[in-house]
C-alpha cells in the first residue's frame, strides 16, 4: 500500500485578510473605494493577490475584515470569489465592522479586527491563522512559511523583505540573530540593523504574520483588556512577542513564487500614485518583473463577460494600434496610438489620440486629438477632444493632481471643475 502524502499545513489554516484601511496616499483613487479594491493589472483588484496566494497555497478558509468605503470591495468579492462551498469545508466570509461587540465600537486597530471576530474564527476549527494585508502586490506560497513556523516552534513568524539598509528606514525592521530569531523590532529606524552575514541589507516587515490560533486567541483577549494598547499587531502584539516570546523572521525570497521569466522576488506596496502608476506600467515591459501569465499560479479575479478588444482604422496618422501595452476586453482602439500603457476593461480611445505610459481604469473614454502621457485616469473618466496632459507641468497641476515625480491623476470631478472654469 502506498503511503499517503503528508497533509499540507494550509489545510489546517485560515487566511484573515485585513482590508479596512483608507489608503489615503492614493488620494482620489480611494474617494469611493478602499485601497484593496483599487484596480490593478488590467483586470484585477489589489486584494486579488493576497486571496490568490492563499487559494493557490491550498487555503480554503478565508475571512476579509472591511471597514472604510467597503461597497465596491464587497461587491467584487461577491462576484469574483463566490465559488467557495460549505459542503467542501470551504469558507470565505466578509466581516465588515458592524459593532458586533459594542454598539459604539468599530475596529480600533488591526488586532481588534480579529478580536471582534474570535467566535467566527473559532467556528472554522483551524490550527493556524495567517494574518495578511489586502493591499500589496506579490506572489507567495504560504505553505512554505507555515512549515518554517511549525518547524521552529515559533509564537509568531513574520514575513520579511530583504531591502538595502539605506531604504529600510521607511519600514518596520527586524533585528535578527544568525537563526533568524527576531531580537528587536524597530519602526522606521534611522540606522537599520543589517542581517547577520549580509550587513548591507535589512529585513523589513511585510505585514504577514503566522500564529497558532490558540496562542493568538489568548493574546488577543489579553490585549483587548489593556486600556493602554492601540490594539494593533505592529505596534502592540508583535513587539510584546519579540520581547517575551519567540518571534521568527521568514524571508520572502524563500517562498516567493517565480515563473521562468521572473528573476528576483517581486513585492510592491502600491500605496501612492507614483507607486501605483509604476507597478502597472512595469507590466508593459518586454520581460515584466511580475509575470501575470503564469498559469501555475493564477491571479484569480472577477472576469466580466465582455467582447474581445478591437482595433480599427489603418491610415497614416489614424491607425488603431498598441505597442508594449496591455489592452483588456471590451476595449476599442479607434484610430489612436497606444504605447507602454495599460487599458482596463471597456476603454474607448478615439481617432488621432496618443496615449503613452497611461494607466486607464475601466470605462475610460479618450476623445479625438488627445495627447496623454504619464498619467492615471480614474474609472469612467471622459477625456474631452484635444486635451493635452503630461507636457506642461504647471497646466497639469492647475487642473489635476500632479505628483512630485510628474505623474498626473485625473478624475471626472477634476475634469468637470476644469470645464466649468473654462466655460
Question: Your description of this structure?
Answer:
By secondary structure, the chain is α/β, with parallel strands linked by helices. The protein folds into two domains: about 10-285, Spore Coat Polysaccharide Biosynthesis Protein SpsA, Chain A (Alpha-Beta Complex), CATH 3.90.550.10; about 310-420, UDP N-Acetylglucosamine Acyltransferase, domain 1 (3 Solenoid), CATH 2.160.10. The chain contains ten helices and 29 strands. The chain has helices at about 45-55, 70-80, 110-115, 120-125, 140-150, 215-225, 235-245, 275-280, 395-400, 410-420, and strands at about 15-20, 40, 45, 60-65, 90-95, 130-135, 135-140, 155-165, 170-175, 180-185, 200-210, 245-250, 265-270, 310, 315, 320, 320-325, 325, 330-335, 335-340, 340-345, 350, 355-360, 365, 370-375, 380-385, 390, 400, 410. Strands 1, 4, 5, 6, 8, 9, 10, 11 and 12 form a nine-stranded mixed beta sheet that branches. A hairpin with a 5-residue loop joins strand 9 (about 170-175) and strand 10. The longest helix has 12 residues, at about 215-225. The termini are far apart. Residues about 1-5 have low confidence and may be disordered.
Amino acid at each position: 500500500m502506498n503511503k499517503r502524502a503528508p497533509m499540507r499545513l494550509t489545510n489546517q489554516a485560515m487566511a484573515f485578510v485585513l482590508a479596512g484601511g483608507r489608503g489615503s496616499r492614493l488620494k482620489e483613487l480611494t474617494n469611493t473605494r478602499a485601497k484593496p479594491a483599487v484596480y490593478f493589472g488590467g483586470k484585477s483588484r489589489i486584494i486579488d493577490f493576497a486571496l490568490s496566494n492563499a487559494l493557490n497555497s491550498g487555503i480554503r478558509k478565508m475571512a476579509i475584515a472591511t471597514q472604510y468605503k467597503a461597497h465596491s470591495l464587497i461587491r467584487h468579492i461577491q462576484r469574483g470569489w463566490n465559488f467557495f462551498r460549505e459542503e467542501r469545508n470551504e469558507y470565505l466570509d466578509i466581516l465588515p465592522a458592524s459593532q458586533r461587540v459594542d454598539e459604539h465600537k468599530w475596529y480600533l486597530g488591526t488586532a481588534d479586527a480579529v478580536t471582534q471576530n474570535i467566535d467566527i474564527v473559532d467556528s472554522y476549527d483551524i490550527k493556524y491563522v495567517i494574518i495578511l494585508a489586502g493591499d500589496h502586490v506579490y506572489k507567495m506560497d504560504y505553505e512554505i512559511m507555515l512549515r518554517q513556523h511549525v518547524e521552529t516552534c515559533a509564537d509568531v513568524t513574520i514575513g520579511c523583505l530583504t531591502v538595502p539598509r539605506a531604504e529600510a528606514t521607511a519600514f518596520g525592521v527586524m533585528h535578527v540573530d544568525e537563526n533568524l530569531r527576531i531580537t528587536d523590532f524597530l519602526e522606521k529606524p534611522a540606522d537599520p540593523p543589517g542581517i547577520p552575514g549580509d550587513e548591507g541589507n535589512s529585513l523589513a516587515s511585510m505585514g504577514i504574520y503566522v500564529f497558532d490560533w490558540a496562542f493568538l486567541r489568548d493574546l488577543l483577549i489579553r490585549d483587548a483588556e489593556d486600556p493602554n494598547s492601540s490594539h494593533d499587531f505592529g505596534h502592540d502584539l508583535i513587539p510584546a512577542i519579540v520581547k517575551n516570546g519567540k518571534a521568527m523572521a521568514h524571508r520572502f525570497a524563500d517562498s516567493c513564487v517565480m515563473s521562468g521569466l521572473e528573476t528576483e522576488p517581486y513585492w510592491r506596496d502600491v500605496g501612492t500614485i507614483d507607486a501605483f502608476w509604476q507597478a502597472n506600467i512595469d507590466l508593459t515591459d518586454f520581460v515584466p518583473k511580475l509575470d501575470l501569465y503564469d498559469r501555475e499560479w493564477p491571479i484569480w479575479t472577477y472576469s466580466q463577460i465582455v467582447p474581445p478588444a478591437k482595433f480599427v482604422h489603418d491610415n497614416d496618422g489614424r491607425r488603431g494600434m498598441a505597442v508594449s501595452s496591455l489592452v483588456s476586453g471590451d476595449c476599442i482602439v479607434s484610430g489612436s496610438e497606444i504605447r507602454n500603457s495599460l487599458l482596463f476593461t471597456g476603454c474607448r480611445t478615439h481617432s488621432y489620440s496618443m496615449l503613452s505610459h497611461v494607466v486607464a481604469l475601466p470605462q475610460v473614454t479618450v476623445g479625438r486629438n488627445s495627447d496623454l502621457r504619464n498619467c492615471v485616469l480614474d474609472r469612467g473618466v471622459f477625456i474631452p477632444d484635444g486635451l493635452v496632459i503630461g507636457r506642461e507641468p504647471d497646466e497639469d497641476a492647475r487642473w489635476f493632481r500632479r505628483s512630485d515625480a510628474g505623474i498626473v491623476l485625473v478624475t471626472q470631478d477634476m475634469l468637470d471643475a476644469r470645464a466649468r472654469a473654462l466655460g
